Amino acid sequence: MRDQSAPPLLLASTSPQRRAILAQLRIPFEVVEPDYVEEPGPDALEHAAGKARSVDGDGRAVLGVDTVVVCGGELIGKPADEAEAARMLETLAGRTHEVVSGLCLRTADWEELHTETTEVTFRPLVAREVAHYVASGEWEGRAGAYAIQGLGGSLVERIEGDYLNVVGLPGALLVRLLATRFAGAYGFG
After folding, report:
1. Cα–Cα distance, 50 to 31 (Å, whole number)
2. Long-range contacts made by residues 169-172, C-beta under 8 angstroms, separation at least 24?
């Protein structure tokens, strides 16, 4: 049972997926938009730390997360339009890619920096399936041009690792950190 006096984490993100995961795990939180300009690049840990460090926790723990998709050593970002989304999905079709999240959990006294990698394998896709998914619009604003928690789940053959990491927040990693740093306060450890 969670200590009712545990202060909510400050989530340095406006991501609806991250909010949904924290709510699912019943971790109390408040959203604070980070004052951090994210430059395109593969360093999810650097971006997570930048987001968390840009928020004044005022004595509370701050959580920053960033997620990237990498396939064959190539960074697969967020598509700008339908054509780019289709190209990304065609690149991922029939292949295994990595979803890498950087996580920064910090207070004024300490900082935890970690990464979590989940391998996702797409099944082979035909052009009609790619077009159907792109027409759904679900790809918009998504690294790798898909959302595994929605229709994008139909593109996936298997995953190895933390499913929640693919959705947008490495849940197992966060729970381990909360159990260690705040034993019992959030219902873990």
Report:
1. 16
2. 169/15, 169/17, 169/18, 169/21, 169/22, 169/65, 169/101, 169/103, 170/65, 170/101, 170/103, 170/114, 170/116, 171/21, 171/24, 171/25, 172/116
Where are the domains positioned within the chain?
9-181
Residues that are catalytic: 66
Tens of pLDDT, residue by residue, the chain (189 residues): 445 568 999 999 999 999 999 999 999 999 999 999 888 777 999 999 999 999 999 999 999 999 999 999 999 999 999 999 999 999 999 999 999 999 999 999 999 999 999 999 999 999 999 999 999 999 999 999 999 999 999 999 999 999 999 999 999 999 999 999 999 999 999
Q: Are 175 and 188 in contact (CB under 8 A)?
A: yes
Q: Which CATH class is domain 9-181?
A: alpha beta
List the one residue out of 115, 27, 118, 110 whose CA is nearest residue 65. Answer: 115
Q: How far lies 84's CA from each of 70, 80, 103, in Å?
A: 16, 6, 28
Query: Does an H or E element contain 67, and which?
Result: strand 62-71
Sole residue written with tokens 């996936």:
156
Helical residues (DSSP H) of the chain, grouped into ranges: 16-24, 44-53, 82-92, 127-136, 163-167, 171-181
Tell me how far apart the terminal alpha carbons of the chain are, to the nearest angstrom: 11
